[in-house]
Amino acid sequence: MSTISPDRSTSEIKSVLHEERIFPPPEDFARSAHIRSMEEYERLYAESLNSPETFWARMAEKLHWFTRWHTVLEWNLPHARWFVGGTLNASYNCVDRHLNSWRRNKAAIIWEGEPGEVRTLTYQQLYREVCRFANVLKRMGISRGDRVAIYMPMVPELPIAMLACARIGATHSVVFGGFSAEALRDRINDARCKLVVTADGGWRRGSEVRLKAAVDEALQQTPSVERCIVVRRTGSPVRMEPGRDFWWHELVETVDDHCPPEELDSEHPLYILYTSGTTGKPKGILHTTGGYLLQTALTTEWVFDLRDEDIYWCTADIGWVTGHSYVVYGPLANGATVLMYEGAPNYPEPDRFWELIERHRVTIFYTAPTAIRSFIRWGEQWPLKHDLSSLRLLGSVGEPINPEAWMWYREVIGKGRCPIVDTWWQTETGAIMISPLPGATPTKPGSATRPLPGVEADIRTKDGRSVGPNEGGYLVITRPWPSMMRTIWGDDERYRKQYWSEIEGVYFTGDGARRDEDGYYWVMGRVDDVINVSGHRLGTAEVESALVSHEAVAEAAVVGRPDEIKGSAIVAFVTLEAGRTPSEELREELKRHVVKEIGALARPDEIRFTDALPKTRSGKIMRRLLRELAASGVVRGDTTTLEDFSVLEKLRMEEE
Ligand code: ATP
Ligand code: MG
């Protein structure tokens, strides 16, 4: 059978979504925010592109440098060196710097475990813990440049371990605590880590995730690992191998409370982090110190309009880049108070998040569309039970947010008061690239709006031509930025090929997008997921948003199935709102609904109702697996980051 293969060399991506709603920034934000108007944004933006070196040099004053850099940027496409000649320390910037002001006694981390215990660490206390663990690492033979794997639940020892690594110049590789022993083993081996930091276990939805047991299994095939340090979290029995395994709490008793920070080169490797694996096998993204820290710190201040009184909560697990940049490095570099929660959003009840917000008086809340769609499905009675009046700003990250989910977030959680920042970025970009500024940018549901100062984005065709307003194409970044990835760990060739060769001379994001007449960016989905229907290339996000705008639909994933006539047939996997039941009638109604919303071209050929969609452990829909399933009924691709295998099993059975 010959089919028209989805080639990306010729046509652009066709945009079919229409969204007219627009929300100006609330007045109180516009009065007092860090950036207060579009004029101010435009001015800063223009300066950042016209005189980038002056701009970034001024911004870099935000950090504490031991030695000032002599050159802002050395750019040899695709390799950048930022703040060349400068030395600094990320842990010093995130901790020590706050000790000579009143912030010394400010809460750095307010932590709540799933069972309900609360621990608060002031900056002074955080300093002591970071120093002690840094001394432990040194005693364990870890020094500058060594890689340390961190496989932990969301407990304070996780950021402490990261900052301790940063303090002595060790490069951390955090592996999400929900991954299997095999996934951990592969990541340890890829980076040749010398030490693993873990815990006996962690709590998730009332049960224990047994981390140490997974580590024991992984360490049977990791020749580089010499030692393992274990935090006692759940207290359940674990096997401790003599000479290899040590308890955290015992080690820290025997070391000094002070550890001088290493003076590290601006380009010193801070960490390696593997991507989510939504589109393929995860890649080890390398970030370095100066540029990364600067841009995460700066964007935290701008995008979240951070102030000293805030209680800031980013719900991401630290195992993802969002947790690295916006739970740890960005907020702590700003001296913020960070709320950190160990467990599930629906434990013991579906209102745990709202209860946390009410009790801790959270002011800034940053979460993912997948979570928002779950909240919608669970019903608004849960948030309505709680006083959410402390909230002043809401954020979204990880996937395109469907306009209807955006509206729900705004009305039900934000009570129409709180601006929403829909932040587009990637593990590779290190920091937020495209996002509203809450005191300046009028928002449109579903759009990440405009690039931040210092970021030059564009929409291009495969052959590098910029496209006009509302024409879909490839989202690219056209000049280097400080927090950009430096390479793929151990595979510079892949770095060149994947990011810098698809479209000549620019950074290729892998996402499809369009830019509207106001210069606003709308991410239409991943380029790998684009569906080619009768020569028209459709982004998945738009068709999915049309489906989700139907009252019966909770979530949708759309993929193409090879079709002799059309090229691709559109297959939609749909989960329904609580209380709705699948029927032939509803199926037809949904098809009509899509036609009405965006046109006949996008009419699904097939709608499959399902209880759940396959997702990565960071909550993103894995369309590539659905695509395989729709085409052949079997899945061969990499599934190491899949959240729940039973979802695939069920989908397969439903098909038979
Ligand atoms: P892999 O690269 O391994 O397939 P991944 O792309 O899911 O995994 P991440 O770096 O965690 O790994 O995610 C970045 C991607 O998430 C972006 O390229 C984009 O597709 C999507 N994304 C993130 N934020 C947004 C947003 N605000 N709007 C639309 N898409 C977003
Ligand atoms: Mg990606």
From TrEMBL:
InterPro entries: Ac_CoA_lig, ACAS_N, AMP-bd_C, AMP-bd_C_sf, AMP-binding_CS, AMP-dep_synth/lig_dom, ANL_N_sf. GO terms for biological process: acetyl-CoA biosynthetic process from acetate. It catalyses: acetate + ATP + CoA = acetyl-CoA + AMP + diphosphate. Its EC number is 6.2.1.1. ATP binds at G398, E399, P400, D422, T423, W424, W425, Q426, T427, D511, R526, R537. Residues 41-94 form the Acetyl-coenzyme A synthetase N-terminal domain. One of its GO terms (cellular component) is cytosol. One of its GO terms (molecular function) is ATP binding. Residues 542-620 form the AMP-binding enzyme C-terminal domain. Mg(2+) binds at V548, H550, V553. Acetylated. Deacetylation by the SIR2-homolog deacetylase activates the enzyme. Keywords: Acetylation, ATP-binding, Ligase, Magnesium, Metal-binding, Nucleotide-binding. Residues 102-489 form the AMP-dependent synthetase/ligase domain. It is an enzyme of class 6 (ligase). CoA binds at R204, R205, G206, S207, T322, N346, S534. The modification N6-acetyllysine is found at K620. Its cofactor is Mg(2+). Belongs to the ATP-dependent AMP-binding enzyme family. Catalyzes the conversion of acetate into acetyl-CoA (AcCoA), an essential intermediate at the junction of anabolic and catabolic pathways. AcsA undergoes a two-step reaction. In the first half reaction, AcsA combines acetate with ATP to form acetyl-adenylate (AcAMP) intermediate. In the second half reaction, it can then transfer the acetyl group from AcAMP to the sulfhydryl group of CoA, forming the product AcCoA. This is Acetyl-coenzyme A synthetase. It comes from Pyrinomonas methylaliphatogenes.
